[in-house]
Design goal:
10 strands, mainly beta, three-stranded antiparallel β-sheet, Rieske Iron-sulfur Protein, disordered N terminus
Length: about 130
């Protein structure tokens, strides 16, 4: 997938709408994991790693209004990314838009997540199987 045009550099295309199925859709952009959620006509994009132990959210569970980490069952609200029952703890949710059948997120927010992921140990989930 091509990056956003030079004049529109504040948005990053992450998925073609035709490639997104109902439910959880893991996406990797520039070696950075994201997860898209499609529920009917609604789309949401979140950071691809759980805040608890960085388990892949692409292997999570979709329950009504929550994205649930399959490793320790942390439940994040789809509307905000807030961790259920823990004010102030939030899985990063990206502002997104659809442009020319591509799902796009803000480049600046993506760059911040990418920097955070760079600090993670790549072997943290090596033995993890949901």
């Amino acid at each position: 997938m091509n990056h956003a045009e030079a004049g529109d550099g504040d948005w990053l295309p992450i998925a073609d709408l035709k490639d997104l199925s109902e439910g959880i859709n893991p996406v990797t952009i520039q070696a950075t994991e994201l997860v898209t959620i499609k529920k009917g006509d609604s789309l949401a994009v979140f950071a691809g790693r759980c805040l608890h132990q960085e388990a892949p959210m692409g292997q999570g569970i979709l329950e009504e209004n929550h994205l649930v980490c399959s490793k320790h069952l942390w439940r994040y609200r789809l509307d905000t990314g807030d961790l259920e029952g823990e004010p102030g703890i939030r899985l990063q949710k990206f502002e997104c838009r659809i442009r020319e059948q591509l799902l796009e997120i803000r480049q600046e927010a993506f760059d911040q997540l990418k920097a955070t992921y760079a600090s993670y140990d790549e072997d943290d989930d090596e033995d993890y199987v949901p």
